[in-house]
Amino acid sequence: MVEQQRDERTRSAGTKTPRSQPPVPEVIDPPDLLKPKVTPGGPTEADFRALERAESIIAELADRYLEVVDADLSNIQGATSQLQGEAANASEHVDRIYHIAHDMKGQGGSFGYPLVTTISKQLCQFIEDLDKTQLAEDQIQAIALHVDALNVVIREKLKEAEGEQAKALLAGLRQVVEKVSNAS
Asked: Is the pLDDT of residue 142 over 80?
């Protein structure tokens, strides 16, 4: 159709015939091919009973989260103590701290402790940026401060990252990381 109009314009370019009106655009409604594939009660419909069961299981696990996180805290504190006492195996201890913090990062938000997630994430990012073969004392202390902060959050049951106490804690940890990062 466009070529036909071009041909007409080309033919009429030499003559002084009036131009015709441009064609009216045609609106084409595409067919809905997805709707027939999704049927109520079909295999693609969400199973709300399964979601309710999953939420129930998570609620039960949340009640036991403090028991689980106590073990993680004990392990991460032990690794931090070893890091502070043995510079020779620093890389090994930092890796262990990183893996425990990474696990805590994933669990915190799932079980109602987003502040644990935030602190653990910050600790993991700090560790990722370190040269684990040449740790300075201030870097080791920054790691220890994060671990201490996790301990405070669990002991005081500070769940929300939006409270004044939580904001102050996070701001302090960020300042430590910035100071240590700028010194390195």
From this structure: yes
Q: Which residues contact 4 (CB under 8 A, 6 or more apart)?
A: none
Give the separation between CA 56 and CA 63, rounded to whole angstroms. Answer: 11
CATH of the domain at 135: 1.20.120.160
Contact 133, 115 (CB under 8 A): no
The crossing angle, in degrees rounded to 10, of helices 48-85 and 137-155 is 140
Nearest Cα neighbor of 146 from 126, 160, 166, 164 is 126
| Domains held by the chain: number | 1
| pLDDT confidence of residue 172 | 94
Contact between 107 and 65 (Cβ < 8 Å):
yes
Give the burial class of 142: count Cβ atoms within 10 A of its Cβ; 0-12 exposed, 13-18 middle, 19 or more buried: buried
Q: pLDDT (tens digit, 9 = 90+) per residue, 16-49?
A: 555 778 888 888 888 888 777 666 666 556 667 7
The pLDDT, as a whole number, for residue 170 is: 92
5 domain-assigned: no
Instruction: Determine contact, residues 126/63, Cβ cutoff 8 Å.
Output: no
